[in-house]
Amino acid sequence: MPGVRFEQVDLRYERRTVLESIDLDLVEHRVGIVGANGSGKSSLVRMINGLVRPTSGRVLVGGLDVARETRRVRQRVGFLFPDADHQIVMPTVREDLAFSLRGSGLPAAQVHERVEGALTAYGLAEHADHPCYLLSGGQKQLLALAAVLLTEPTLIVADEPTTLLDLRNVRAISARLAALEQQLILVTHHLELLDGFDRVVVIDEGRVVADDAPGPALERYVELLG
Ligand SMILES: Nc1ncnc2c1ncn2[C@@H]1O[C@H](COP(=O)(O)OP(=O)(O)OP(=O)(O)O)[C@@H](O)[C@H]1O
User: What ipTM was assigned to the predicted interfaces of this complex?
Assistant: First the structure.
C-alpha cells in the first residue's frame, strides 16, 4: 500500500482552527474516517491530493510530499466526491470515461478497449451513449468510480460517496469499494460500510479522538454522539 502520512498537520482558516496536531500513518488496505458534521473529515482527506493545504505540517503520499509533488501525487490518487455531478465532465457516459484517459499517451485502440471494458464492468454499457444527466444517482457514482479507476490510481480517497444514494445503491457502491485492490480511505456517515475495514479514525472538532479497529473505534464514536 502506498500509505498516507500526516505529520503534525494543522489547518486554520483565519483564526478558526479546523484541524489540529494530526499525526497519522495510514498504511492499511481499508481505512475509514468518521466524525460529526463539520469535524474536519473532508478537509483532512482533501489534503491527500492537495485540494486543501495544511497551515503547518506535511502530508506525504507514498513518500511524496503533496505540497512539492502535487502533480505526481494526483496521478496516484483517485478521488470520489459526495456528488458525482461534480466530477462528470463530458456529455455522454462513453465520452466521460474516455476523458479520463486524455493525456495518457495510450493509442486510440487501447483507450477504446479500456473504455469498453469499464462500461461492461460497471454495468453502464447500455447507457454508453446516453447523456450523463439521465443516469440515476447510483449509476452516476458508478461512472465516477469507473472513470477514476481508468487512471490506474494506487490509492482511492472517497469522501461520503454514498451520501446521496438510496439503500440499494449504497450497497452497490460499497461492494465495489470493498472489492478494490487499491488502498481505500473512505469518509462516511454510513457506519455499516466500515465492517471488515482494517482501521477506523474518529475525528472530533479537528482532532483524532480514536484510532482503532472498527468495533472499538465506532463504539467510541457512538459514545461521542450520545
Ligand atoms: N474554505 C473554508 N473556509 C473557511 N472555513 C472552512 C473552509 N472549508 C471548511 N471550513 C470549515 O471547516 C470545518 C470542517 O469542515 P469539513 O467540511 O472538513 O467537515 P466534515 O467533517 O467533512 O463535515 P461533513 O460531515 O458535514 O461533511 C467546518 O466548520 C467548515 O465550515
Answer: 0.96
